[in-house]
Fold this protein.
Amino acid sequence: MGIITPQGILLDANSAALHLIQANRSDVIGKPFWETPWWSYSTRLQKRLKTSIARASQGKIVRFETEHIASDGKHITVDFSLEAVRNRQGKITHLVAEGRDITQRKRIENLRKEFLSAAAHELKTPITVLKLLTQSHIAKAKGGEDTISVNELELIDRELSRLTRIIDDILDSSRFETGQLFLVLKEINLVQLVQETIKKITLYAKNHTIFFRREEQDLFVTADAARIEQVLLNLLSNAVKYSPSGTKVTIAIEKKGTYAIVSIQDEGFGIAKTKQKIIFNKYYQIKKRVKNGFGLGLYISKEIVKRHHGRIWVESTIGKGSTFFFSLPLSKRSSSQSS
Ligand code: ADP
């Protein structure tokens, strides 16, 4: 915040404002506001500020969003406003300048916009396929033909499953936000669950060889089986999606202390070190890798694992492949047996 004269001379600024430009009070006080480092790097901004001060000193409320460069060189988005302060006689004596850093809010807003357009795009593809199919069958039926083939019914079924998956992901992510995701916890054999999930993915991953390595016959965890299966399916389908045909995917399960650790290793593109944390963020996708999906799979997996008091992480080398890991606390009967 700052206080300026109606002519635009800076009288005072608070410490948050000074911190932003790494300046001392004495560096800026007494200067025209537009000549201070908050504005001086852009003549366009300076002009805008000058007109705004003229308007505010006539009693008009001024408010606009602007990009600023902080002292560390980062661009920040600021919600800026100027408001007049009057004396008892109604004369404008000062202007109060206020700038709110809304960078984070803006970033989330932009991600949301990108997400909405990606989601709409994803939903459109299966819907277009279904629409074309039904239209062609309406035309055939009108002509007295009745010829829907098994192949076409299977295509409809596949596309409907895709739609359901996308919608479920969107619903899940909003359930996490509102804290409305409830787990149905039971003691389950994780080794068996992994085995069953591999069977399911093998049906889709015909171009990859899937291996399963385990040291224990049984590992019991208290978990929501459907949700853990969802994590496994997300990680396995990513391993297949982001690695070339003909490569290997290895799933392993082992006991470490009081935890079960599941790992899914691929021989794919790999993930740069700088991206290894943020890929778990909501909507995040590494650019230029256009495949179906829109950045919710890992976020949902992380939230599910977290709610089971476990951890999820990745180790990866670009060009060599990635291994995703997640841990789950073992239930008493497994953790008390020594391995
Ligand atoms: P989506 O697959 O829908 O993009 P995810 O949340 O599952 O979303 O993954 C986020 C991003 O992480 C992906 O866009 C992809 O770039 C990267 N990624 C995930 N799994 C792998 C993997 N096994 N190998 C390489 N990159 C991966």
